[in-house]
Structures are given as structure tokens and as C-alpha cells.
């Protein structure tokens, strides 16, 4: 039997159960992977609470790294013994081992260890598509990125610095501000002591920014729109404070014909060729030391409920992993 986390109902961290499960053989197009580390991400909270519905009972976790134990028919890019990593639906990474679709699994380069692999895939690929595809940055831009001291934010801070982009980041404490600055964030705003809209306007000489990357949602949405220059783009890629409430599209017109998008990583990696390009770009940034994946919290898999409590109370910074 294999240990895994399961939920039988939606709710708080108390619904997370550490149980025995049977992991069978992979079918066509599948592999069985033995995890060395699993990633923790805010999207896991959305699935646990039911904000993102899924059939119950169910597993949680979208990200992991480990070794391929078995390969199903038709899988040609992986073999038994390969070191691998992934960020993929359906949830189920909170486990010692799992069977999953091989199409979303990539080989992990030898220069990247399992813990880094588990901590970097979802967050790193998110920054990759945000900066390379959703609103492609070419260097020289000034951007606003919320939650700059989180796992995605710290990767974004480093990536922005590496490509010559001036990043304005928001955080919730002075300690987090120092962390974001240390990772390359050019301007940091503590939204608990400063008005981030006023500060963005001050930093940009009243012009605003061409793009806002916002994973906070309800609490920052309208303010984010107010930070945009005319014809700017609002990229709403998460809702840590709650879903964005309904709004009139006239809010976009009145601020200068703004654009808005609600992207998801899983649409961007739906094609295998896109996943390969994105993963190789991320691996290159890490192997070249332009980006360092900061694993600031480690929990045993059985202690995942505490990990969720700490994540939701914003006690965590950088990346967090679970050790099976």
C-alpha cells in the first residue's frame, strides 16, 4: 500500500486525510512515478475548499518530482528509472506514488535536484507563460506584480531582473519586502502601510504600467485596473483573497480601453510541444543561475494540513514542498 492525501468533502485543512491507497500499473499513455518531493501551491487550496470543483473523494496536489517506476504502452519519451518532474491535472501529487498521464511529465535535468524540481514546475512555468506569452516582455518595461514574496513572485522578481524589466511588487510585510528586493524586485510596496495605486503612479510618473499580473483577486482587482496605462492589460491569474466579483466592462473603457485575460497554466501546456519549449526555457533559467528556487518551507506529507494553514495565513514565503 502507498500513503496519500485524500479528501472526502470540501472544507478547511481538517478534511485532509493521510490514508493508504493502492497504486496499480500504468495503462496506455501513462507512467507510475515514485515521488521524492511534492509541491504545495495555492491552487491546492482552491480544490480543497471546492472553489475549483472536482468529483469526491479525490486527491490533491498538482506538482511533483521523482523517478519513473513503470511505463505504459505507447509512452516513448520516458523509461523506467528516468528522473522526472511535472505540473499537471488532475490533482493527486500529494502521494508517495501515483499513476498519471505521461504527456505532462518531463525529464528533469541532472543539474536540478528533486526538491527543486518539485518546487519549481507549477510556479516557474506560470512565470514563463505570463512573461513570454500572455503579455510578452521584451525588456525595458515597468510592470506591477502582486504577491512578490510568494513562490511565483520570487521567481518573477528574478526573471524580470534577468530580462531587463523593472518590476514593482506588492507584499504584506516589511520582511517580505526585503525578501522581494533581495530577489530582484526593483520597487516593493507594502500594501498594509501604503496605497499601492498611488505608489505605482508615483513610480511611473503618473503614466501607469502596461501590464498588471494579479493573483490576489477580489482585494486588488479594481486597484490593479487603476494602475494600468491606457491600452494596458490586466492579467488576473489567481484569487488568493477570493474570486473577482462581477464588474461592468465599462470599467475597462473608462480607464482607457484596457484589456483583461484570465489565463491558466493548463491551457498553455495542453500541447506537448508547448510544454517542452516552456520547460526547457525554465530549466535554462535555473541551470544558468539566473533564477534560484527558494524552498523556504518543508513539511512531511502527513503534516500537509499544517502546511495549508500556514499557506492560507500567509506565513509562507517562496516555495514550499512536501516530503513523502
Automatic annotation (TrEMBL):
<dbReference type="GO" id="GO:0035925">
    <property type="term" value="F:mRNA 3'-UTR AU-rich region binding"/>
</dbReference>
<dbReference type="InterPro" id="IPR002364">
    <property type="entry name" value="Quin_OxRdtase/zeta-crystal_CS"/>
</dbReference>
<dbReference type="Pfam" id="PF08240">
    <property type="entry name" value="ADH_N"/>
</dbReference>
<dbReference type="GO" id="GO:0008270">
    <property type="term" value="F:zinc ion binding"/>
</dbReference>
<dbReference type="InterPro" id="IPR047618">
    <property type="entry name" value="QOR-like"/>
</dbReference>
<dbReference type="InterPro" id="IPR011032">
    <property type="entry name" value="GroES-like_sf"/>
</dbReference>
<dbReference type="InterPro" id="IPR020843">
    <property type="entry name" value="ER"/>
</dbReference>
<dbReference type="GO" id="GO:0003960">
    <property type="term" value="F:quinone reductase (NADPH) activity"/>
</dbReference>
<keyword id="KW-0560">Oxidoreductase</keyword>
<dbReference type="GO" id="GO:0005829">
    <property type="term" value="C:cytosol"/>
</dbReference>
<dbReference type="GO" id="GO:0070402">
    <property type="term" value="F:NADPH binding"/>
</dbReference>
<keyword id="KW-0521">NADP</keyword>
<dbReference type="InterPro" id="IPR013154">
    <property type="entry name" value="ADH-like_N"/>
</dbReference>
<protein>
    <submittedName>
        <fullName>NADPH2:quinone reductase</fullName>
    </submittedName>
</protein>
<dbReference type="InterPro" id="IPR013149">
    <property type="entry name" value="ADH-like_C"/>
</dbReference>
<feature type="domain" description="Enoyl reductase (ER)">
    <location>
        <begin position="11"/>
        <end position="322"/>
    </location>
</feature>
<dbReference type="Pfam" id="PF00107">
    <property type="entry name" value="ADH_zinc_N"/>
</dbReference>
<dbReference type="InterPro" id="IPR036291">
    <property type="entry name" value="NAD(P)-bd_dom_sf"/>
</dbReference>
